[in-house]
Amino acid sequence: MRFTDIAMERQSCRNYNEDRPVEDEKIRAIIEAAQIAPSACNGQPYFFTVCKGEIAKQVAELTKGVGLNKFATQAPVMIVISEKPYVKSAAAGAKIKDNDYRSIDIGIAAAYITAEATTQGLSTCILGWFDDAKIRKLCDIDGKIRLVITVGYANEEDKLRQKKRKDLSELMKEIG
Ligand SMILES: Cc1cc2nc3c(=O)[nH]c(=O)nc-3n(C[C@H](O)[C@H](O)[C@H](O)COP(=O)(O)O)c2cc1C
Fold this sequence. Notes:
Layout: H1 3-9, H2 24-35, E1 46-52, H3 53-61, E2 77-83, H4 88-97, H5 101-119, E3 123-127, H6 132-139, E4 145-152, H7 168-171
Antiparallel strand pairs: 1-2, 2-4, 3-4
Helix pairs in contact: 2-5
The protein binds flavin mononucleotide.
The site of flavin mononucleotide (FMN) has 11 residues, from strand 3.
């Protein structure tokens, strides 16, 4: 499969089959994909907490609010991505260059997770809206939570949508 084919197939799923569990080996493949993602100074400043069963439902509840993420409790698996400290060189680089490499690294890991999940026939949704403090307490996580990803099998009627994106002219320019 070409990468672009995977990217076209990946879409945010908000309609899961609650009765179809996710195989453990697929979750492992997803996390292994994140393990090989690039990161600043190869520091991998993140941690993945894979929540299943009742704990997944409790995490999902903590992603709901202002009408958002009502679907999250349908997903059998929730992956919570939290921050870990920078390695020294990445910390120095981030300070000197005033850049948030850790969030960038976590975004790349999330992209790998969602792409690998797609190849496994799974559907995902990256969630940026959640109760950080409560999920940390519930899951005994020491670093700030940056993203939560729902994972499961989409319901049959959840068809592939056409991608709505900015025109390339708004996203790039060529110089030289
Ligand atoms: C950092 C980030 C945070 C997001 N937060 C949420 C969220 O809390 N709830 C939700 O339903 N979708 C969320 N999304 C999904 C986006 O809405 C979605 O990726 C975008 O509309 C493009 O649609 P697609 O993923 O189906 O291609 C988030 C995506 C990203 C990358």
